[in-house]
Amino acid sequence: MLMTRPGGENAQKDDVPWWMRYAGRGLGTVGSLIAILLGVFNCLGLLTLNVSCLIAGIWQMLAGFVVIVCEAPCCCFCIDYVQTLSDKMETRPYWNKAVFYVGLALPPFFLCFVSLSTWFGSGMIFGTGVIYGMMALGRKASAEEMRTSAANLEAGLGQPSSAPRANLVANEQPVAFTGLPLPK
Is 88 inside any structural domain? Predict the structure, then answer.
C-alpha cells in the first residue's frame, strides 16, 4: 500500500516523458525536505527580531510538508489522511499542480527577500511547479511536423484543423482586427 504511487499513471499523462515525471517527483521530494530544513534555519530570524523571516520560515516548512505529502506519501505514512490527499492530488491535471506549488513557494520570497535559505528552499518548490508547468504544456511536435505546418501556413494552405493549437485552450478563437472606429 505504501508504494502504490510511482506505478500509477493516468491515461491523460501518457504524452509526458518518463524522465520529466521522475524529475518533478524527485525535485518535489528532495526540495521539500530541504525547504523544511531551511525553514527551521529561517525561523532563527526571531533571534534578530525579524518577524517577517520567522513567518516566512514557518510558511516554508508548511509548504515543504504539503509538497512532500503530495509527492512522496511514503515519507509520512504514520499520518492517516496522507494517502487520500496524495491520491486526490495525483488525479488533478499538471497545470493545477504547477499553480499550487508556485503559489505555495511565493509568499516566503515576499516576506523574507534577503535570506538565502528562503531563495534556496522555496526556490526548489518553485522549480517543482515550473517542471509541472512544462509537463502541462505537453510534448513538442516532431521537426517534420513543424516544418510541414510552417510550410502550409506560409503558403496559405493552412486550414484550422492543420494549424498549431494550444493544449490548454480547447475553445480558442482566431484573433480578428475590426478596424478603427468611425468618427461621428
Answer: yes
The verdict on residue 7 lying in a domain is no
Location of C-alpha cell 522555496: 122
Give the domain extent around 61.
16-137
Q: Has residue 152 been placed in a domain? A: no
Number of domains in the chain: 1
Classify residue 10: in a domain, yes or no. Answer: no
pLDDT digit of tens for each residue in the chain (184 aa)? 444 455 454 444 567 888 888 999 999 999 999 999 999 998 887 778 788 889 999 999 999 999 999 998 888 888 888 888 888 888 899 999 999 999 999 999 998 888 888 999 999 999 999 999 999 988 777 888 888 888 887 777 655 554 555 555 666 666 666 777 777 7
